[in-house]
Amino acid sequence: MTRIFVAGMVSALALASAAAAEIKIAHVYGKTGPYEAYAKQSHDGLMMGLEYATGGTMEIDGEKIVVIEKDTQLKPENGRALLEEAYGDDEVDLAVGPVSSGVALAMLPVAEEYEKILLVEPAVADSITGKNWNRYIFRTGRNSSQDAVSNAIALAGPNVHIATLAQDYAFGRDGVAAFKDALEGTGTDVAHEEYVPTDTTDFTAAAERIFNAMKDLDGEKKLFVIWAGGGNPMSKVNAMDPGRFGIKIASGGNILAALKGWKEFEGMEGATYYYYDLPQNPVNDWLVKEHQARFGTPPDFFTAGGMAAGLAVVEAIKKAGGTDTEALIAAMEGMEWETPKGKMVFRAEDHQAMQSMYHFKIKVDPNVEWAIPELVRELSIEDLPIPVRNK
Asked: What family does the database annotate (predicted)?
């Protein structure tokens, strides 16, 4: 009788242990605040990526995936505290996020302190996988250099002068620095740099300084805008008639809501991270079809990024045979996997995901509510000489 009771207890404990086995992931991101749209896309994409990679089971080798959401409200101090909470109190296996580069920079040391993976998506600043990087940081999102090099390819040429308008924080500053580096040897110079607060809505003074710096230059003149969130700088500057000085506005890609305001820029060229109609591959086909069915819209800029992160998480855990951090690092360095953008590869030197970008030209169709980034050409991993900046 005693043996049967003990055996029953052992069996029950084993079943309870098996039932409790789960993979815990924290999504630490700015759910509320000016980047709320980016955050929702990122989370939707992450969940769809986990779903796609697990064939709908949301399990890896029989272990259930549990995603814990934490809202940074775009405050660096919150990002740091919430990541500490996730690694410590919640005992997550790894974390994904955040939206803001400033928040990401505050979170990087926490990953190193707890010796756990932080998969950065979609924060962009070069310094995340550059001077502030540590070995526990991987990034699926593009970095400032990938934006910069692809846009330099799209915009540069002999006797071209470019001014920049950017937000005065890590995203904007790193973006301009990388863009200037990418222009070296192209025959194009940066004629003026203008930085304004992230919440700027009146661009009159900044625009006047740009116009004054460029009005007497000979050759082709462009204003390259690096911007995230609201404020609508492109339309507001365009309303001041930069064309009277021969200045054309240019920018990288953006979310569909922003592209609604780009119909006044027909023919504008640049390079983008993603637009749902540009990549041609089975993963993107699934994402476009499923997102349209579930949400009534095509997937957006950061939906693709979130999905790439979810796919990377599952691929890494499968390859590592579990969630041990050192095994994950070994598995992820040099790891290739398929995403809505096609192949991505984690570069071993800085854990930045190498990926395609897309040179576009804006087309306006009255039957489509946003401006369409029409493909000029895909810029492959091999086309983009992205510097390693963590040395």
From this structure: Belongs to the leucine-binding protein family.
**Among 28, 154, 172, 21, residue whose Cα is nearest residue 97:** 28
Directed axis angle between helix 301-320 and helix 325-332, to 10°? 110
Percent of all residues in the chain with a pLDDT value above 90, rounded to a whole number: 93
- The span from the CA of 239 to the CA of 40, in Å, is 31
Residue 309 region, left (φ>0) first, then alpha (ψ -120 to 50), else beta?
A: alpha
Q: How many CA atoms lie within 13 A of 214 on its CB side?
A: 32
Give 145-272+357-383's CATH code, choosing from 3.40.50.2300, 3.10.50.30, 2.60.40.10, 3.30.420.140. 3.40.50.2300
Q: pLDDT for 27-76, tens place per residue?
A: 999 999 999 999 999 999 999 999 999 999 999 999 999 999 999 999 99
Please confirm whether the linkage preceding 109 is cis (ω < 30° from 0). Answer: no
pTM exceeding the 0.85 threshold for the entire prediction:
yes
Instruction: Give the domain 20-142+280-354 fold.
Output: Rossmann fold (3.40.50)
